[in-house]
Design goal:
Largest sheet: 5 strands, antiparallel
Shape: elongated
Structural class: alpha+beta
Helix content: 10-25%
Number of strands: 14
Number of helices: 4
Distance between the termini: 49 Å
């Protein structure tokens, strides 16, 4: 059991007492401690958060139309949070620990350069979220019907990179439903079959994400495919053939993604 005085003593040692508010009274068990950040700390956190979001965008292939946000959870270097925003020369995100996770914390490596010339390295925990406009059912739909413009609407929702979504009405209208759909259900390759989004001999932009960067390769489709279909394409330069998964009109990802 920790009392309020115990908490105050520890925070006083760390020089944090002035920035802490308490719920409770003296000589009772503390049920909640809220750390109140100073305006300077908030500004520094925002600078780091913006850099993480920019880093995430670079690692996501075909990020056009996506809103990429980062929520800072922890900075494991108190010297950085002690800096004032005007003392910072630059912030660089140099990588992340393991694959980037979406909707749950990811650890990023950051280097903060102060105007004094001193450099600070730290590990930063942040959560990346991605939203974009995606197709949903505008009304209840039964299996096997041809999808019309009245059957589809678009709404902003949180998405996962690598999953196939319809980004435009052109991609879904004329396709078929494969399952019972309720109004508002997300439309994707698991419950609908689009008209071909890639036709034989079309140019296809194939993307790959390795966690640190995204690569795009221009290929030629050797067969047609709808959303989420696996097709064979040929690299325009090397002439090598490989399998990809269709993710949109004229777009695909390597089959292992």
């Amino acid at each position: 059991t920790i009392t309020l005085e115990d908490v105050k003593c520890e925070l006083r040692k760390k020089g944090l007492l002035e920035n802490v508010s308490f719920t409770g009274a003296d000589k009772v068990v503390v049920t909640r401690v809220t750390v109140v950040k100073t305006p300077g700390e908030i500004a520094v956190n925002m600078l780091i958060t913006n850099e993480i979001a920019a880093y995430a965008r670079k690692t996501i292939a075909n990020s056009a139309g996506m809103e990429i946000c980062a929520m800072l959870i922890d900075i494991f270097n108190p010297e950085i949070t002690a800096l004032a925003p005007q003392e910072i020369e630059s912030i660089r995100i140099t990588g992340q620990s393991g694959d980037m996770a979406y909707g749950r914390p990811t650890a990023f490596f950051a280097t903060v350069l102060a105007k004094s010339g001193k450099s600070f390295d730290t590990l930063v925990n942040a959560k990346i979220s991605i939203t974009r406009m995606i197709a949903v059912a505008a009304r209840d739909l039964r299996p096997g019907i041809t999808i019309s413009g009245q059957d589809v609407t678009f709404q902003k929702a949180e998405v996962e990179p690598g999953r196939s979504y319809y980004a435009s009405a052109e991609e879904i209208i004329g396709g078929k439903t494969l399952a019972v759909l309720k109004q508002g259900d997300l439309l994707d390759g698991s419950n609908t079959k689009s008209a071909p989004l890639v036709r034989r001999r079309d140019t296809v932009v194939v993307t790959s994400e390795n966690g640190n960067y995204a690569v795009e390769i221009v290929c030629i489709a050797m067969q047609e495919g709808a959303l989420s279909d696996t097709i064979t394409v040929q690299n325009k330069k090397s002439r090598n053939n490989f399998e990809v998964r269709v993710t949109g009109k004229g777009r695909a990802v390597f089959i292992n993604q």
